[in-house]
């Protein structure tokens, strides 16, 4: 039987489970996140899914790593944020859970940091030791690598809250309590309300669309829809300003942009690069901006690396 590391990436919409051996994803499965459900209850489902993967692929585990969408004490493998996703997560002992079910060790890390490790070792950040990752999706996640080391900070916040930097002092209150966060200005969870609450919604072609996602917004903007164009411009500008803030804060060699919204990278990348050239203190050529290569499984590969490094 092949020995593998189990990686679990608990996203806001989907949970990805994978078996990793020597940096290669051998098998995977994706299930609904149901992030409103208690974390302890969700772990019961994950145990069954993991057992199924191990049995079907004749593998034995050497450890399990969970990438979690919140603030994580990676020294004690504890979730320390009390946020909207997975209530009761702070109470769960991941080490005990892994030891009880499989007799193996467990690692817990913030999902953006895990994705950063995956891109650093196996993706767009390979060979670069000063790296910033930003993921555009259900929320906006960030992580930072400085001189080859993950930035964590005294309270494990460092580099993780790029999505909750204010980019609009007149903006709405975010679900974190802050005002005008990058997330509340331009993420999937905030998009529908921003569209529907616009005074131009009823006259927009977006009013007849079932799926109000960024792909639809960009498509309608290209077709000349006024509201879609406004939403597109606001989002691109917010993402760009957020990235410029990260550049000024951490002075990286490279910015890697991932997340589901980057399926529209042909629209996003040129805009971001233009804004960096215009507004950043760094001159053209001093910093690279590139799409993530491990769009689906960076977090799982990152946890696999963390378990074996």
Automatic annotation (TrEMBL):
Pfam families: ROK (PF00480)
Protein name per the record: ROK family protein
Superkingdom per UniProt: Bacteria
PANTHER family according to UniProt: BIFUNCTIONAL UDP-N-ACETYLGLUCOSAMINE 2-EPIMERASE_N-ACETYLMANNOSAMINE KINASE (PTHR18964:SF149), ROK (REPRESSOR, ORF, KINASE) FAMILY (PTHR18964)
UniProt family annotation: Belongs to the ROK (NagC/XylR) family.
């Amino acid at each position: 039987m092949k020995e593998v590391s189990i990686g679990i990436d608990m996203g806001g919409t989907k949970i990805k489970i994978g078996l990793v051996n020597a940096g290669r994803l051998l098998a995977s499965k994706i299930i609904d996140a149901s992030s409103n459900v208690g974390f302890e209850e969700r772990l019961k489902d994950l145990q069954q899914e993991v057992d199924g993967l191990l049995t079907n692929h004749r593998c034995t585990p050497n450890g399990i790593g969970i990438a979690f969408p919140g603030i994580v004490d990676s020294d004690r493998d504890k979730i320390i944020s009390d946020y909207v996703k997975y209530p009761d997560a702070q109470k769960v002992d991941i080490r005990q859970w892994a030891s009880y079910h499989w007799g193996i060790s467990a690692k817990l890390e913030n999902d953006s940091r895990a994705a950063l490790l995956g891109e650093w070792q196996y993706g767009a950040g390979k060979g670069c030791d000063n790296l910033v990752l930003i993921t555009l999706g259900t929320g906006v996640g960030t992580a930072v690598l400085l001189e080859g080391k993950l930035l964590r900070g005294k309270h494990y916040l460092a580099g993780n809250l790029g999505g909750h930097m204010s980019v609009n002092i007149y903006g709405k209150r975010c679900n974190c309590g802050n005002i005008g966060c990058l997330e509340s200005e331009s993420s999937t969870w905030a998009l529908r309300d921003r569209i529907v609450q616009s005074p131009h919604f009823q006259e927009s072609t977006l009013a007849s669309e079932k799926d109000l996602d960024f792909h639809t917004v960009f498509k309608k903007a290209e077709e000349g829809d006024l509201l879609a164009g406004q939403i597109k411009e606001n989002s691109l500008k917010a993402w760009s300003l957020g990235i410029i803030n990260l550049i000024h804060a951490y002075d990286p060699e490279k910015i890697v942009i991932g997340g589901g919204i980057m399926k529209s990278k042909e629209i996003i990348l040129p805009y971001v690069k233009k804004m960096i050239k215009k507004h950043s203190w760094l001159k053209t050529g001093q910093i690279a901006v590139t799409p993530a290569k491990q769009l689906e499984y960076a977090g799982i590969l990152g946890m696999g690396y963390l378990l074996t490094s």
